[in-house]
Specification:
The protein is an alpha/beta fold. 41% of the residues lie in helices and 15% in strands. It contains 8 helices and 10 strands. Strands 1, 4, 5, 6, 7, 8, 9 and 10 form an 8-stranded parallel sheet that branches. Strands 2-3 form a two-stranded parallel ribbon. Helix 1 crosses helix 8 and helix 2 runs parallel beside helix 4. The chain is globular and about 45 Å long.
Length: 271
């Protein structure tokens, strides 16, 4: 039974690897042409992390695993981009580097600074971190504003993940507006400019919440739904590729990254 599972797993990996080489020319970004995409925009993968530590938790990847993943991206020619670059591409077809990828973190854990940040710098990568503002400087598990400002000076982008990380679909309109505006105001005060981008806490949202995020002058919002971003994407419900810890974390990372364009091409998921 164990051998059978091993063969199945190897078969899945080989399938995705061969398809990515033959059909997609060794890239995870796919040019998709259809009536709603007459300018032939590529689909862009957006990775979603939370913690980079040694805890045995689904939302944690170890520093060793994270470096292995970043090394893979580096050696395979990926170039990290910012949300501003992504928006300019989607809205105005501004040119992106070869094999663009956006790396994001949710919550603002301390290990993003102590563990992930040095690895990102090692490979010349940037990232975007969505902060729960009332936890910054007030909870030892999370970063301080001084650390955030240091990272900002090095090109790391910061966005809002609300003030208190409450599921927005469980709150009243007044409470939602408070979560959005308090977070926006604090980020503006601490970093000297208003945040442009937002990520839904717990991934929960609806059309009404999307409009409230838009009303708070955010340019785009990110979900935890699996997929890539392309010409058909709603800017206020952008899909990402969540990265989790597992028995074979790198295998999962490889399949989720390289499998997204294949699943989209087959019509099983859609950006």
């Amino acid at each position: 039974m164990n051998k059978r599972k091993t063969y199945i797993t190897l078969g899945i990996i080989l399938f995705f690897f061969c398809i990515s080489l033959l059909k997609f020319d060794s890239t995870s970004v796919v040019a998709s042409y259809n009536e709603s995409n007459p300018i032939n925009l590529q689909n862009i993968p957006i990775l979603n992390y939370h913690k980079v530590d040694i805890l045995n938790h689904a939302l944690s990847v170890s520093p060793q695993e994270f470096e292995e993943q970043m090394e893979y991206l580096y050696k395979n020619g990926y170039h990290t981009i910012t949300p501003d670059q992504l928006m300019a591409y989607l809205k105005s077809c501004k040119e992106l580097p070869d094999k663009p990828i956006l790396i994001t973190f949710d919550d603002g854990y301390l290990d993003n600074y102590t563990n992930a940040y040095p690895i990102l710098k090692k490979y010349g990568f940037t990232a975007t971190i969505f902060l729960v503002t009332n936890l910054i400087n007030h909870d030892d598990r999370f970063m301080t504003w001084d650390q955030v400002r240091e990272m900002q000076k090095s090109g790391i982008v910061f966005g809002s993940h609300t003030a208190n990380h409450k599921s927005l679909t469980t709150l009243s309109k007044e409470q939602i507006m408070s979560e959005l505006s308090e977070s926006r105001d604090e980020l503006t005060r601490q970093l000297g400019k208003p945040p442009k981008y937002f990520a839904y806490p717990t991934g929960t949202y609806n059309a009404e919440i999307e409009e409230m995020v838009r009303a708070n002058k955010y340019k785009a919002a990110f979900t935890i739904e699996y997929g890539q971003v392309g010409a058909d994407s709603d800017l206020y419900s952008l899909q990402r590729i969540p990265i989790f810890k597992g028995q074979k974390t790198f295998r999962s990372f490889f399949i989720r990254l390289n499998g997204a364009p294949i699943l989209e091409e087959l019509g099983l998921i859609k950006s």
